[in-house]
Design a protein that fits this description.
Number of helices: 34
Helix content: 25-40%
Number of strands: 30
Strand order of the largest sheet: 7-6-5-4-3-2-1-8
Oligomer: single chain
Distance between the termini: 57 Å
Largest sheet: 8 strands, parallel
Strand content: 5-15%
Structural class: alpha/beta
């Protein structure tokens, strides 16, 4: 035992010794600094050069090519390689001619492109490359993608937004996507990432461009980004050396002063560079800064300082990659020395590439004179030029190919960009306060107001909020009047919206906006959502009265959409603050919120579906419209709890006057059975008010003694009780000319005649009894087989109202719609909505003699005052999808269990399949053989229903897909052939959805 303990002790001692030795051997030491101060004592010890990662290792072929090119160059050609000149694709012919001259006569080494467009830039790139003896480097500032400079390209989030993301793999994916953009554009350098640690909230030029104020957070995100870029063969450039984060001046306009100590610079500002060099960063851009602790000469810019560029960057830090100056036209440099002189000083300082030289001919002349006078040696010139040529070889310029212009726009804007954008904001948006768990909002049975602050768009945010529940926009320029308008509201969402386009500005809440927030917060529950820099909230001195604080960082559509989803729990908060907000919230703060299983929104690819294949839906929709099968329609597809396709096509009628919108309401016909009556029946079953074997006589005594008394609950819901399909009850109430008889109807609301069936037609109140008697007395069909019957749900309405004491419309609202957020689903929609948003179903010439719009199309349901168990519901595709998602989640939605999973499973069982009856309990199921309601390509566990007006809602537990199709195929005449059905439009769309699945 003693010997064993001795060995253990010796082993520990050796480990300690090795650990100490490793420090002296420059081994890596990384510490998580997320919760420590910026001036912490942890110091990163860099690797020795041989242990650094190398994305672009040197090869023999490279050396041969470099030597071959270099040895053929004249002196002026060598000097020309040092210059990367500013080029624009939005300027005139004179600018183009100037660049052509610099390329052909002065043999410049590269171009940095600024404003313009991708097509124009690609053409100019090809033009300039064709003129160049040695292919040009092409660079661009694309910190958030090409859109930083070019129109018609994709805008990725700013670095500060990315700095909020915990999952670094996502940041790496951004680097990959941006690199693919660069590659497609013939760009070799993306002058990114920004490595500045933004410790000064008032920094006028860095701000959003920084990953944050914590050196570790900045570095980790920068490394992830760089890996993504350089693994695609594109070069990253870390900037702005030695650190532009703690400045209060914009170096574009003047020379900023950094009064930090050498110790601070060593511990903080240089930390990202040390780690990035070890991780394989290939180039650095040196800033125009006045840093007295690094450069003793007063007011001397770091970009032309030998102590900074050569002594610190190259010698002390051992960086041997390409070194760029920041743009030499910037006032931080150009105010110090004139064109030509500034270029020479920059080269003498140790830079390799002189960016944005203002006067190349003069600069070449100055460098030539310095060479002749011995200020510049041949070895010094060769060092930079050969380094430039080496990276040209690494970039593939030894085998240069022009930029292909075909499909350029498509290639620069792949659908995967939008998919990534959703992922990024789902991971970035940050909740920093969540008092009393106000987030996510669980209770939808409350009045919620939204107030806009800021001067930019809020449409995506508001429209998405309204997809979850009724949220009312409230506005009044007078604060007292505004507070009065808010009297009845329980929760107020305040959105602060500032434009991303003015990223260099520092938006701040105004005094009046601060007063508004304070005044509302003392009276109401408040959630404030900031669609701008976190610093924008710094003017709020005290957050105590504000229950919820969300930082959404930017004001784009995806940020707004995801933030609204977060408020209602469709996504959770995952982000952490990259910077502090006054003394209230610190960098690294970020709360996780609860996930409620409400429908969210994303792209098809994020749930394993193909956008391209889903485009087939549009073709089928227009096939139906062009073929006069329906004037318009809504189509929705959701998968894995996310809506991935929601579009409307056509018009309300064939006169093409009013386009269909996603919010319009359709008469969903028999979908009523599934979205109104059935869930209530399932709740009763769940509470054991009825069993599968309960018979109709037990459910409703009025059936005792009738031929329907023995029909069991299971047979009733399976359409297996031998009941007739329907009875045209209305025909007994119209005369031989098909006009409503006065015995049964009045044209105005009259006592005893209150059942409204159209604008000017009211049925006598007691006619329901006549309908029930006809059902009770109707004969059964001879053979016991599947026979779809409306009687089932007419009877179930009667049963539900008897047991609960509530009318079906009120019961459905109370039990489901108000808590599900199905605010666009109801009977008799004209009680709430304007007729213009309700799609007409028919021009009735046989009963009501009117355009049926806002009144249920089904005649029996109309005779029930619009409220029936089998028809009467009006809704839109999104609301129907909520109910289908509830079923898919086996009775749970929004964190509420409406009925048990066991009950759902029982109702979704095909009890009589062996007898050839495909139906579940209330649900339709896929056909067993032959024709049926589906494409024949969904699982047997799937379920749904179709409707007479041209509707279908279907869900498949195996693929987790919800599919909703709503139309008014009955317009203008329901008696015309049902070509929508004959042409299998609904089924073919369902097939297209199934074929779009990329992964199970």
């Amino acid at each position: 035992m003693k010997q064993f303990l001795f060995r253990i002790g010796l082993f520990i001692a050796l480990l300690f010794l090795v650990a100490n030795c490793s420090s002296t051997k420059n081994k890596k030491s990384v510490v998580n600094l997320s919760k420590v101060g910026i001036e912490d004592e942890e110091i990163y010890i860099p690797h020795i050069k041989s242990e650094r990662k190398n994305f672009f290792p040197e090869t023999e072929a490279e050396t041969l090519w470099v030597d071959s090119i270099y040895n053929q160059m004249t002196f002026n050609e060598k000097v020309g390689q040092l210059f990367m000149v500013a080029a624009y694709s939005n300027k005139d012919a004179a600018h183009v001619a100037e660049i052509e001259k610099l390329v052909s006569e002065y043999k410049i080494g590269g171009l940095i492109f600024f404003q313009g467009g991708p097509k124009r830039q690609s053409r100019l790139t090809n033009k300039y490359q064709a003129l160049s003896k040695v292919p040009l480097f092409i660079g661009i500032d694309a910190e958030w993608g090409m859109s930083m400079r070019l129109d018609s390209t994709f805008r990725y989030p700013f670095n500060m937004t990315l700095g909020a993301i915990r999952d670094l793999k996502l940041v790496e994916k951004v680097g990959v996507a941006m690199a693919n953009e660069s590659k497609r554009m013939g760009v070799h350098f993306n002058f990114a990432p920004v490595l500045d640690i933004n410790t000064n909230p008032k920094n006028p030029i860095i701000g959003y461009r920084s990953f944050g104020e914590n050196k570790v957070n900045v570095t980790e995100h920068a490394i992830a980004f760089m890996k993504g870029v350089q693994r695609q063969g594109i070069f990253s450039t870390g900037k702005h050396f030695p650190g532009h984060g703690d400045t209060s001046t914009d170096s574009h306009h003047a020379l900023p002063v950094v009064n930090a100590s050498l110790e601070h610079i060593e511990k903080v500002e240089l930390y990202p560079y040390k780690r990035m060099f070890d991780e394989g960063l290939v180039s650095v851009m040196v800033a125009h800064l006045n840093v007295p602790s690094l450069e003793p000469r007063e007011g001397y810019p770091t970009s032309i300082s030998q102590p900074v560029v050569t002594n610190l960057l190259k010698n002390d830090l051992g960086f041997d990659g390409l070194i760029f100056t920041d743009a030499l036209n910037m006032k931080g440099a150009s105010n110090f020395k004139k064109p030509g002189d500034i270029d020479l000083e920059a080269f003498l300082a140790g830079n390799d590439i002189l960016l944005f030289a203002e006067n190349v001919p003069l600069a070449v002349e100055k460098i030539c004179v310095a060479y002749q006078e011995g200020q510049i040696s041949e070895s010094r010139l060769a060092e930079s030029v050969k380094k430039i040529l080496r990276y040209k070889f690494k970039a593939g310029l030894n085998k240069y190919e022009p930029v292909e212009e075909i499909n350029l726009f498509h290639d620069l804007n792949p659908k995967s960009n939008l998919s990534l954008q959703y992922e990024l904001y789902e991971n970035a948006i940050t909740v920093v306060k969540n008092q009393d768990a106000i987030l996510p909002i669980k209770n939808l049975n409350q009045k919620i107001a939204y107030i806009k602050l800021g001067d930019d768009s809020n449409s995506s945010f508001v429209s998405t909020l309204k997809k979850y529940t009724e949220v009312n926009e409230v506005f009044d320029a007078n604060l007292d009047s505004l507070l009065t308008k808010l009297t009845d509201y329980e929760t107020v969402i305040i959105g602060y919206h500032k434009s991303d386009k003015t990223w260099w500005k520092s938006p701040e809440l105004t005094a009046s906006e601060l007063q508004l927030i304070d005044s509302i917060a003392v009276k109401k529950k408040v959630i404030i959502d900031c669609f701008a820099k976190p610093y924008s909230l710094s003017k709020i001195a005290n957050f105590e009265a504000i229950e919820g604080v969300i930082v959404s960082y930017q004001n784009g559509d995806v940020a707004q959409e995801v933030s609204a989803e977060l408020i209602f729990g469709a996504v959770v908060s995952k982000g952490k603050l990259p910077v502090s907000i006054n003394g209230s919230f610190s960098a690294g703060d970020g709360l996780f919120t609860e996930k409620l299983n409400r429908l969210g929104f994303t792209t098809p690819e994020n749930v394993g579906m193909s956008s391209e294949k889903l485009n087939q839906i549009e073709k089928l929709a227009y096939k139906a419209i062009d073929g006069k099968m329906a004037p318009g329609m809504q189509v929705l597809v959701a998968r894995k709890g996310k809506v991935i396709y929601q579009k409307s096509f056509g018009h309300q009628t064939y006169d093409n006057q009013i386009k269909i919108k996603n919010s319009d309401l359709y008469d969903v016909a028999s979908l009523t059975k599934m979205v109104a009556t059935l869930p209530n029946v399932m709740q009763l079953y769940d509470t054991q008010k009825v069993t599968l074997e309960t018979n109709l006589g037990e459910m409703l005594p009025l059936f005792i003694g009738s031929n329907k008394q023995p029909i069991t609950f299971k047979e009733l819901l399976s359409h297996y009780g031998r009941m007739q399909a329907w009875i045209p009850f209305y025909k007994a109430t119209v005369d031989s000319t098909k006009q409503p008889m006065e015995k049964y109807y009045r044209k105005v609301f009259t006592e005893g005649f209150t059942k409204r069936v159209s604008d000017s037609l009211y049925l006598r109140d007691d006619y329901h009894d006549t309908i029930m008697k006809q059902i009770i007395n109707s004969p059964l069909i001879d053979k016991k087989e599947y026979k779809y019957s409306d009687f089932t749900f007419i009877i179930l309405k009667k049963y539900l109202e008897k047991v609960t004491g509530k009318s079906l419309d009120q019961l459905t609202y109370d039990n489901f719609y108000k808590t599900l957020g199905m605010n666009n689903t109801l009977y008799n929609p004209l009680s709430k909505f304007d007729k213009s948003v309700i799609v007409p179903t028919e021009i009735d010439t046989y009963f009501r003699h009117d355009t049926i719009q806002g009144y249920v199309h089904d005649m029996e349901a109309a005779m029930e005052g619009g409220v029936a168990g089998h028809a009467g519901i009006f809704s839109n595709a999104l609301d129907v999808a909520k109910m289908m998602q509830l079923y898919l989640q086996k009775g749970n939605y929004g964190g509420v269990q409406y009925f048990s999973p066991e009950t759902f499973n029982i109702f979704n069982t095909c009890w009589f399949c062996p007898q050839g009856n495909r139906r579940g309990l209330g649900f339709d199921k896929p056909q067993i053989s032959g024709g049926g309601p589906t494409c024949g390509c969904v699982s047997m566990s799937s379920f749904g229903h179709t409707g007479f007006t041209g509707t279908i809602a279907w869900a498949d537990p195996e693929t987790e897909i919800v599919y909703v199709f709503l139309s008014n195929r009955t317009f203008p005449d329901s008696n015309l052939p049902n070509t929508l059905s004959k042409e299998n439009i609904r089924e073919d769309i369902q097939k297209a959805v199934q074929e779009a699945i990329l992964e199970k």
